[in-house]
Structure formats: structure tokens, C-alpha cells
Amino acid sequence: MNSGNDITNITTDAKADGKSTAIKFLKDNLSFRKLLPSLCSISLAMENFLDTLIHASAESINFSGENNEFVVITMPLLLQTSKSLGRGESISLMRRRLTELEKLGLLKIYKHYGSSNSARYAVYEVKDLTPLINMAHVRDRATEKVKKSRHSKQSITLTKDIFGCDESTIMLTGHHEVQVFWHNKLFNGILDLASRLSAKDTRTVIDVECMINNEHLSIRALCSSDATSSISMLSDQRVMRPLNGYCLKDIRRTMKKLERQYGKNFDRRLVPNRFCIDIHELCSLMGLKPSKSAIEAVVVKMRRLADTTYHVDASRSPWFQRTFSSIAFENRVFSDTYEFRYINSLEIAREQGRIADLFGQAIESFTPRFYTFSLEPHLFESLMSDRSTLFISHPGLATEQGGLVQRIYNWSKSLIGNTRKSNLEDKWFSIHDMYLNLTPAARYDNFRFHFFNALQKFACGDSEFKKGVAGKSLIYGYFYHYQHIDGQDYFRVERDVNDPLVGDMSPANKHRARNLTIDLYGDRLELPAIDEFSLTE
To answer: Backbone phi, then psi, for 265, in 5-degree steps?
Structure first.
């Protein structure tokens, strides 16, 4: 944060040069020059403005303070740079773009008053631009018309250079655009919409019509024909989260072994999509002692995950097609029908045991002990390519029994993520909105019962959460504010900025900042890997 003396010095210099506006641009933001072509969270006009700012910063030789943390840009320099790039050069346009940055929470305005007590000099301090990466999308680059020009080809090449260095992405390249996508939220944010809320729901087929990324998606969940099979429940994510982390660590160990044997450029196809886990270890990862009852509960969850198949009709969702199609044909035709199963090719090794019988000989029993399985291919590819914090979640979720709480966390993370969302600060959802967003496949009365129970369980402070009385709950890094107005229940979601995993100083935000370390001229991108054993999901 700047002191008053810093602001005074800058405005004094501006006054001496006959300039009424100065822009302090964080030097670390120069790294965004190569990332701009891939951002979907800003308009084309804002993209051009930020590009102009970065170019002007590179031209400026006036640094604020001895630590050279900021680059100081005057308005004439900004206008001159914009003109040289063939863009708008009016002062009102520049100030309008700066105001837009302020609304996004990425800029702070300092005013220096003259003797007439009027705002004669202004300093615009542009903050860290990293939050732009996780902000909600406002444009779909895949549907934008790309001009066949040298500039467009250079943008695509730069994007490929940036993301090609980062193993946390999977790239789908074609003749028209570069698509970057992640699959970590497939089972924890999309398909879980069709999961059962409780064991009382005995349906063997669940159909859900939903809106994902503002597009229609149809999901059907069904179980195998076996009489003992059933559709997965939201509480089964208590198994999925530690299982993801276990598989990720196993993949990392295998990759390090192959790297030592064949070098860094080893064939990644040598990493098998095949895992084996002892159910006792899985219980431990879930915070359970491997007692008979605990093992039986985990066995049932594993069986449901293996028996449940999700059929997705994405014919009305171009976004889903582009994101999850394994192959794009030459004419850019993507798949529109999908079938997903979390666990594939399941093998079970049973352990022989003996149960004492008070009235006769002991009875032999066979309990599942070792599970060998393959992960859904999209999920496996994400784990294979992940070099970031995509799969980090609160450790408490591995022990959280509430299925709806698991779903609340998935939705909150998809809605807000790890960064500030200014468009959600004053947005209130009705109880019916929450129902449609969280569990549209469940009965409304069941959802309402479990939802208020969750809010009461995680109520802030010592006060009891009561219906009809304004309150606040903290659910694994996200505040849920509650109000009862005119007989209706309303809720607002807010990120806990001090939370260790989704707050401002979370591993994801720190790692994101490290990954954007580029030298002044943007010639080098450093992507340091995080500790593989710090992952909990």
C-alpha cells in the first residue's frame, strides 16, 4: 500500500510536467502481456486497453521509489502509446477504462487537491491483475471470428508458448483457435447435480436439465442392472476427494521414476491409468479407523461409484462439447453425447476372516480389502497434466459426512473460486434458486431440510442459526449470509479472504502469482512446481 508521501511525490512531479493524471502500474503486471490473448474474463476493449498499459509501462523509465515496484505512466505517454498501436486516443476513453478496472476491484484512485480544494491531480494505482484469471467469463473466444492476419497468428503462437510450458493444461489445437481446458470439476461441480441427496431416494434413474456456463445440458444418472446397485450419493464425494489425491500422488511417483529412467522428455503414455489401494489406507485418508462398520460403509460407497454411469446430452452446449470432446475432427465437429463413470475396470481382492458364532463354529467371511481400478479418462488426463493447485480442497471435506455440504462446497468454488467476484458482492439467491443450483434432482422439501441443517451446523459464533432470523454461516471457506424478507428466504455467498485455502493468501493464489513470473520483456516464463504431497484432493 502506498503512503501519503508517495502519492504527493507523484502528483508533484505530474504538476511540474504540466500533467494532471498519473498511473502507477505494478511491475509484476508486465507478465500479463502474453496471457491477455487467452483471457475470457474481460472484453476485447479491456484487453486492448491492458495491452496498451503494458506497452506504455515498458516504455516508461520513471519508477516510483527505490525498490522499482511500480512503473509510473503519464496520460500523454498512454495516449501516445495507444495512438502508435492504432487504438483510441481520447482522455475520456482512457478514464472510462480505468473506471472499469476500479469496478473490478483492480484499481484504486488517489486524488491530490490544490488550494482551490478541487481534485486537480489524480493517481490511478493498478493492482495485481492475477484475479482476472479466475473471474467469470464475459466472452467466448471460440465463437469469435478470428481475422487471418499476422497479429492473430502471433497471438495463437504466444498462447501456445505460454500454456505449452505449463503442464497443468491440456491443449486442443486446430485451424481456428487454441482451446485450453480442465476437467477437475466434471465430477465435483457438474455430474454431481444428478447424484442422490440421501439414501431415502431409491430411484435407479435420475434426469436433470440444467444450465452450465449459460448453456443447456441434460444429465442422466443410472446404475447397473444388479439388484444391489444404486446411484451414487453426494456423500460419496467423501471417498472421491482423498481418492483423487491418492491417485495424483501415485501418478507423480511414477512420473518421477520414468523421468529418472528416460529423462524429462519421456513418453507420458508410459504412465498407466491403473491404481491399487488398500481399503484400510482409504479409511485412514477419510479420517476413519478401519473398523468393520467403517470398512463396510466405504465398500458401499466404492460400489456406488463403480455402478453409476452418467449420460450427458450436450447437443445444446457448445461449451461442453469444446471442453470435453477428446477429439475434434477436421471440420471442427465435436462430440455431443458422452458417457462418464468415475471408476472403471474395477477389481476387488477379498480378505478372508472369521466371525465368532456364539452357538456354533466360527463363520468365514470375505471382506473387500484391495481395489484395483482405472479412473475416468478425462479425470486421469487432468491428474496427469496437473502442475498447479487444481485438486486442492479443504482437508475437512475428506471427513465431512454431509452430502449436501460437499455439493455446497463444489458450487461455491465454481461460483466464486479463490478470487474476488465484484458482480456477486450484492447478489442474493432465493431458497428456490439455491435448490436449482445445488440439487435440482432432489425433492424440494428434502433439500430445504438438509440445507438449513447445514447452515445451522456451520453457524458463525456461538449463536444458534434460526429460520427467519438474519444469520451467517461459514462452510469451508465460504460465508453464507441469510435474510428473511417478506416471508421469503434469501442467501448471499462470500469468500472468506482469510481462509488458508480459498483466501487471498491461499496456495492457489500464491502459486498463480509465482507462475506469472516473467521478466520485464516477457521473454521467459518460469513455472515452479508445487510440493506434490501438499495436495489433499
So the answer is: -95, 35
